């Protein structure tokens, strides 16, 4: 089926892709609009003034700093736990395999609101004060599967004979782990970490329940959506958020391209 | 001080030998920390949530009381307005899932069967980017497009389709004062946001169809349309089922889209959010959040029979 796609197929696929991308382009356009009350289209005029206005918002910078810190901490935690579970699941056969898989995907298969309120009730029962640490716990929980998906796929493609050769040549388990296994999964691990970083940076539903008074960037953004102080500033920050998450994602795609599929199926698959 | 004649091996070597010679130990060392996290933090929280859903609320103080009661579930499943919320949310989730499958199929088909090389890689990135990039920004973008004087309404004017748009908005149930405050608008935004979750699994399922099968179909005299209907579509079902888990589950729990693109009438997610927050009735919020858990569990079992888990 390498023939030329039919006109109908090309038109419907193109329409689908436009559906995905036009709204984002509109946001980019509105970041420059001179109209600050309505979303009138087309904008009556264009200006750069909203960029310095956005940069002057201290609350936005504080939220961004918290988001970056949380994303870093939860990514590191997820990288450790995700790599460990991949090492366990890549080759070993044991009876509870399917249960472990289910457990790992459950936080993304169940709606975020369930994860959020479940964690909230638990923190309340244990009298854990809500704050940065509780946000990190929530984020790490659903980021583990992202790291796991990437690393386990690579481990399965790493030949067992490499490990055996390493041991035959006198390396102990730790040397093999450091010199053979980890280098072979390094790019997959990094890709998984990039995606989990982007995921944490963007998460809002679980965060609203675990953040207490803390404001991550998405929570700041959500507040602006409902009560905007300067509407076009929201557009500028939206543009910035896109630029911010684009980097890690493109890097992750690049790191895994050609070696194995990046399990895009999701925040998920 | 050991008196044994054998030279004592360094600790590191002994640890390594244990790990290499006893796979069960290696398995335990690698599996236990992540498993403990998932069981204690996540499963523990889910169980706690379930327990909360059976707690009561003191009528006078408004405090949560740890006593067993079925009041919360009775409220969720018998109060007409609450039943409406559940029905409304499930119907929206189904509609969004169907729309996502319809829009995703041509894109996935093009990616799997026609695109090659660099163009294919580009298409892949194009679909992947929205999936991982900001959810909130995209919701916001959706609202911008749907706004009263926004892009769609400007486009409708330019193409002289205003009567069509007004007619749609006058339609009972789906319509409303503007696209941004109607179920139709909400449906569009949901579909827009979750679409990539459907494209990728469907593409993966189509990718796995061997060209030999398609050739065999045409050798046996099937026209392209017949091949599509009798061969490709059935083989795409696991992918569609896998994608639908996400479109369905994400719609069931979302409280932000129904808030930002508002039609009157709550969704399950909004109810959970309001009850735990402003209403201060955590047990009722917990009971409400058990509903999506139940629905998703049934859905997962169903999807597994369609082969969704092999397509993930």
TrEMBL record, chain A:
The chain crosses the membrane at residues 7-32, 66-87, 99-120, 126-148, 180-199, 233-253. Residues 64-252 form the ABC transmembrane type-1 domain. CDD domains: TM_PBP2 (cd06261). Its main location: membrane. InterPro entries: Bact_Polyamine_Transport, MetI-like, MetI-like_sf. The keyword Aminoacyl-tRNA synthetase does not apply. Keywords: Cell membrane, Membrane, Transmembrane, Transmembrane helix, Transport. It is found in: Cell membrane. Gene3D superfamilies: MetI-like. PROSITE patterns: ABC_TM1 (PS50928). GO terms for cellular component: plasma membrane. It is a multi-pass membrane protein. Pfam families: BPD_transp_1. GO terms for biological process: transmembrane transport. The keyword Membrane applies. Signal peptide: none annotated. Belongs to the binding-protein-dependent transport system permease family. CysTW subfamily. This is Binding-protein-dependent transport system inner membrane protein.
From TrEMBL, chain B:
The keyword Phosphoprotein does not apply. It comes from the Bacteria. It is found in: Cell membrane. Keywords: Cell membrane, Membrane, Transmembrane, Transmembrane helix, Transport. Residues 86-303 form the ABC transmembrane type-1 domain. Its main location: membrane. It is a multi-pass membrane protein. SUPFAM superfamilies: MetI-like (SSF161098). InterPro entries: MetI-like, MetI-like_sf. GO terms for biological process: transmembrane transport. GO terms for cellular component: plasma membrane. The chain crosses the membrane at residues 20-43, 85-109, 121-141, 180-200, 231-249, 255-273, 282-302. Belongs to the binding-protein-dependent transport system permease family. CysTW subfamily. This is Binding-protein-dependent transport system inner membrane protein. It comes from Deinococcus aerius.
């Amino acid at each position: 089926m390498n023939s030329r796609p039919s006109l109908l197929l090309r038109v419907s696929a193109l329409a689908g892709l436009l559906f995905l991308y036009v709204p984002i382009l509109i946001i980019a356009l509105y970041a420059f609009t001179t109209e600050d009350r309505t979303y009138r289209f087309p904008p009556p005029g264009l200006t750069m003034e909203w960029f310095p206005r956005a940069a002057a918002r201290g609350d936005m910078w504080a939220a961004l700093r918290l988001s970056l810190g949380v994303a870093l901490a939860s990514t590191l935690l997820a990288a450790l736990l995700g790599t460990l579970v991949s090492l366990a699941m890549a080759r070993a056969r044991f009876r509870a395999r399917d249960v472990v898989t289910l457990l790992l995907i459950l936080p993304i298969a169940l709606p975020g609101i369930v994860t959020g309120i479940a964690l909230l009730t638990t923190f309340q029962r244990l009298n854990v004060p809500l704050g940065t640490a509780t946000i990190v716990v929530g984020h790490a929980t659903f980021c583990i599967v992202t790291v796991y998906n990437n690393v386990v796929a690579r481990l399965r493609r790493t030949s067992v004979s490499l490990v055996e050769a390493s041991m035959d040549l006198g390396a102990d388990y730790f040397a093999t782990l450091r010199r053979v296994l980890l280098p072979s999964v390094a790019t997959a691990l990094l890709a998984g970490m990039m995606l989990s970083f982007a995921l944490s940076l963007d998460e809002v539903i679980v965060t609203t329940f675990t953040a207490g008074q803390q404001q991550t960037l998405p929570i700041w953004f959500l507040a602006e959506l409902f009560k905007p102080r300067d509407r076009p500033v929201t557009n500028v920050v939206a543009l910035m958020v896109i630029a911010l998450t684009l980097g890690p994602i493109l890097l992750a795609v690049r790191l895994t391209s050609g070696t194995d599929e990046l399990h895009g199926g999701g925040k998920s698959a | 001080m050991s008196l044994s004649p054998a030279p004592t091996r360094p600790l590191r070597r002994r640890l390594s030998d244990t790990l290499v010679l006893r796979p069960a130990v290696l398995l335990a060392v690698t599996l236990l920390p992540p498993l403990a996290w998932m069981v204690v933090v996540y499963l523990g929280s889910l169980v706690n949530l379930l327990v909360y859903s059976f707690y009561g609320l003191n009528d006078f103080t408004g405090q949560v009381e740890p006593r067993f009661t079925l009041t919360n579930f009775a409220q969720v499943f018998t109060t007409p307005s609450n039943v409406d919320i559940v029905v409304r949310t499930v119907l929206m989730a189904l509609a969004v899932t169907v729309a996502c499958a319809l829009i995703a199929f041509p894109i996935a088909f093009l990616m799997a069967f026609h695109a090659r090389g660099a163009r294919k890689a580009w298409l892949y990135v194009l679909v992947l980017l929205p999936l991982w990039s900001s959810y909130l920004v995209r919701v916001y973008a959706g609202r911008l497009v749907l706004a009263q004087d926004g892009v769609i309404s400007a486009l409708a004017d330019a193409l002289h389709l205003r009567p069509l748009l007004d007619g749609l908005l006058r339609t009972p149930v789906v319509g409303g004062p503007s696209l941004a405050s109607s179920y139709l608008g909400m449906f569009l935004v949901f579909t827009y946001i979750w679409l990539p979750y459907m494209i990728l699994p469907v593409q993966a399922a189509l990718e796995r169809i061997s060209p030999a099968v398609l050739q065999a179909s045409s050798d046996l005299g099937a026209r392209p349309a017949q091949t599509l209907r009798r061969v490709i579509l059935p083989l795409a079902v696991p992918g569609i089922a896998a994608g639908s888990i996400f479109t369905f589950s994400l719609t069931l729990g979302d409280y932000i889209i129904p808030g930002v693109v508002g039609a009157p009438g709550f969704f399950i997610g909004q109810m959970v959010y309001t009850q735990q927050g402003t209403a201060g009735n955590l047990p009722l919020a917990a009971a409400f959040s058990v509903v999506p858990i139940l629905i998703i569990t049934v859905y997962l079992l169903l999807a597994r029979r369609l082969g969704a888990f092999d397509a993930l």
